[in-house]
Automatic annotation (TrEMBL):
Gene3D superfamilies: Phosphatidic acid phosphatase type 2/haloperoxidase (1.20.144.10). Keywords: Membrane, Transmembrane, Transmembrane helix. SUPFAM superfamilies: Acid phosphatase/Vanadium-dependent haloperoxidase (SSF48317). The chain crosses the membrane at residues 27-47, 59-81, 111-132, 139-157, 163-182, 203-225. PANTHER family: AT30094P, SPHINGOSINE-1-PHOSPHATE PHOSPHOHYDROLASE. Signal peptide: none annotated. Residues 63-178 form the Phosphatidic acid phosphatase type 2/haloperoxidase domain. This is Phosphatase PAP2 family protein.
Amino acid sequence: MNLDVLRELDKSILLAFNGSDNLFVDYFVLTLTSAYTWIALYASLLYMVIKNNENWQKILLVVGVVGLGLLIVNGVNLGVVKPLVARPRPLNNPELQGLIMATNHYMADGYSFFSSHTANSFVLAVFFSLLVRDRIFSVLMIGWSFMVSFTRPYLGVHYPSDVFFGMIFGSTVAVFIYFLYLRIYIRCSDKLHYISTRYTRTGYSFADIDVVISVLILTFIYAAFRAVLSI
């Protein structure tokens, strides 16, 4: 399969996912794609980390490696990849004018390849899934990252390939920072495995995990209500 075929496939998938004639879905997606929508989720993850680590050194270790992961993603993408590849966003591509739908005049600055929204969400979802080790939590966090990723082609600001590489890069960085976290954590504590009905095997309370899950679900409900009110 040559490069031209891949480009055409990329465009075809983009056109299949881009926009709709449904105002509810449009406003729902616009809410989901905003980083401000997920402030409560980020706060609940921080709450969970604070509640389940016995000292500030361990809390700052988690916060530090997450910050490092986001710094790597955005530094590499915004500082190297996007300027080097210089791929115009679909909405700015002359070949797609008249074919791509702009949702409520939504636009994005900069180049298209690859999606920072996607990479950042996968850093968080994959890292915390590895850290917490709870099946329901992991499914919902990965599902959240997929939903955030889906919003980008829908809004016409990224190609599917931008999203795909964002997923791969974000997940790779998440695995890297998790193993970095483990290496440092082992020097601070030997409590890596817990056997309890109240905690995961990495020592995270199911009650605190439920707080994060509840916030995530309530945020989706908020996005749905906001979409209804915006119609």
